[in-house]
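User: Here's a protein and a ligand (magnesium ion). What would the complex look like?
Assistant: Let me lay out the input and then the predicted complex.
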Amino acid sequence: GLHQVESYDYLFKIVLIGDSAVGKSNILSRFIRNEFNLDSKTTIGVEFSNRTLTIDEKSIKTQIWDTAGQERYRAITSAYYRGAVGALLVYDITRKQTFENCERWLNEMADHAPHDIVVLLVGNKTDLRHLRVVSTDEGRRFAERRHINFIETSARDGSHVDEAFRLILTDIKRQID
Ligand code: GDP
Ligand code: MG
């Protein structure tokens, strides 16, 4: 049969990082397939997924890498970060420790990720209002101190998931233009 050659203006690799169970895989499945899984054991089974978006009239193919659970053992290697131009650093607004560990994740990235990688801090699970322990202000202040952008999302109800990717892609594109 005929093979359509896919064309795009940019190809960006984005990695998902952050503690276990903060919602990384669900942010990805919401963004790629508009799906959410209550069961955390669901494994996507591939190392990355793609979606192409248009930003400022340019088509940007985004290749998003998800962990297969290595974050549990802090065993994310340089291979995971290789060639990445962006990282979504995700924490869970209902678990303080996952927010506090963002400092460690940034240090780990300083050692293993490309030095000019663009980081977006993502406070996930905003649908769990009654369980929130990390305020929006705390998230914003931490991001400001580390000179990174910040957004809150819910993979469950889908709020701000597309915006998170649009935000980081816009930042990356500005940096290289
Ligand atoms: P990962 O380990 O960071 O990839 O986290 P998962 O995507 O596997 O999610 C861990 C658990 O949190 C699962 O039970 C998900 O259903 C749940 N979860 C993920 N995102 C959200 C969210 O935005 N809201 C709520 N209420 N639960 C979420
Ligand atoms: Mg996962």
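Summary: The mean pLDDT is 92.
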